[in-house]
Specification:
heterodimer, A: 100 residues, alpha/beta, 4 strands, 45% helix, B: 106 residues, mainly alpha, elongated
């Protein structure tokens, strides 16, 4: 079970993407636990995550979040995929990074 | 219809959110003394911001044409992000100018 953490300003817009990503993961038979949180909780929720993804509006925090979550990959979500709520595309990227 | 509005809201959030990040990164570059990089990011930010602005303007034009837009918290959030990005656009230019001045005086 892979733990995927999405971060944005308030955890609001990314929570919709969670639903889309979960559906894509279920369709492909990938077991994962996906949740959205506000960026302020990064250190706490990133501690046992397999990957941390940032929404475009908090991308400028990338370096700081990498410091707060040193044990897993941290990267920004592709802007086009985010704008189209393309859960499958974001999921594809996660699988590439995690090698699953 | 809801699906369409949700999508437009996300297009706005994604575009202006990216722009907002670029404006803040531009300030950070100026702080580090890279003014050329800062100006470039600022310019890129304006381009991305416009994408979000066009998506939003499309909704307003539709409403003006009598096609009422349904209220959604997500759209309100998108407009909130748009306003925040717009403010950062103005402030980042000011910040870069101040950093330039500081560098000249030191």
């Amino acid at each position: 079970m892979k733990k995927i953490v999405l971060l944005c300003a308030a955890g609001m817009s990314t929570s919709l993407l969670v639903t889309k990503m979960q559906k894509a993961a279920d369709d492909e038979g990938v077991a994962c636990d996906i949740n959205a949180y506000p960026v302020a909780q990064a250190k706490e929720v990133g501690a046992d995550a397999d990957i941390v993804l940032l929404g475009p509006q908090v991308r400028f925090n990338l370096a700081k979040i990498k410091e707060q979550c040193p044990n897993c990959p941290v990267e920004a979500i592709d802007m086009a995929a985010y704008g189209m709520m393309d859960g499958a595309k974001v999921m594809k990227r996660v699988k590439e990074v995690l090698g699953i | 219809m809801m699906e369409g509005l949700e999508l437009i809201s996300f297009q706005i959030i994604s575009a202006v959110g990216t722009a907002r990040s670029m404006y803040i990164e531009a300030i950070q570059l100026a702080k580090a003394g890279d003014f050329e990089g800062a100006e470039k990011l600022l310019e890129e930010g304006q381009q991305v911001f416009l994408e979000g602005h066009h998506a939003h303007a499309g909704l307003i034009q539709k409403e003006a044409a009598g096609e009422k837009c349904e209220f959604a918290l997500l759209l309100m959030h998108a407009e909130d992000q748009l306003m925040s990005a717009e403010a950062f656009s103005i402030l980042s230019q000011e910040f870069i100018d101040v950093y330039k001045k500081m560098k000249g005086n030191m």
